[in-house]
Amino acid sequence: MNYLLGKKRKGGTFGGMKLTKKATALPSLKNWGGVRTVTQRIKRSQTLAENKEAVAYSLLCMANTKITDIVEWDDNYNIRIKPMEDIPDSAKQAIKTIRKNAKGEIEVELYDKVQVLRLMAKASGLLDSNQDEDKPSVIGINVKAPVEDVEEKK
Predict the structure, then answer these.
(1) Residues 6+ apart with CB under 8 A from 15
(2) Residue 88 confidence (pLDDT)
């Protein structure tokens, strides 16, 4: 017999709730079609929920990084990458790739700032449309018909 919360007990109470034979535990999700995908999504969302402060911090770092945090140039526009110890940790999180091209030049690619800002705006609700904007305003209008004097027309 299954009892409330999946505990096998003989009647009585559990946490102040009366246990009955009709209350059953949730069925197992194993061996159901597509459950693996659902389970993986739940685990990912739990991981994000547990680490939302770290995710928000990383997004803020990417959004606030300036190119001058990573590279520097002189009056002749000779560009060079700053030494790694001079680059702030927040700016290091914004670096997508660093590579050397065929000419021997070093290329630094940052994450797309516009996409990061869009993601942050969506997550914070800035891009949500107000549901009441499209609804028409309700205005009460009282119309009174003119009153005619029947005796005057005769």
Answers:
(1) none
(2) 93
Tokens 């520097």 belong to residue:
72
pLDDT higher than threshold 70 for residue 50 = yes
User: What tokens appear for 116 in the block?
Assistant: 């990061």
- Output the six-digit token pair for 27: 């069925």
- For residue 149, how far is the Cα from the chain centroid? 69
CA distance 79 to 97: 17
Q: Strand, helix or coil at 99?
A: strand
Number of H helices, E strands in the chain: 5, 6
Tens of pLDDT, residues 118-150: 988 888 878 776 665 666 666 667 777 777 766
d(CA 48, CA 123) in angstroms, rounded, equals: 13
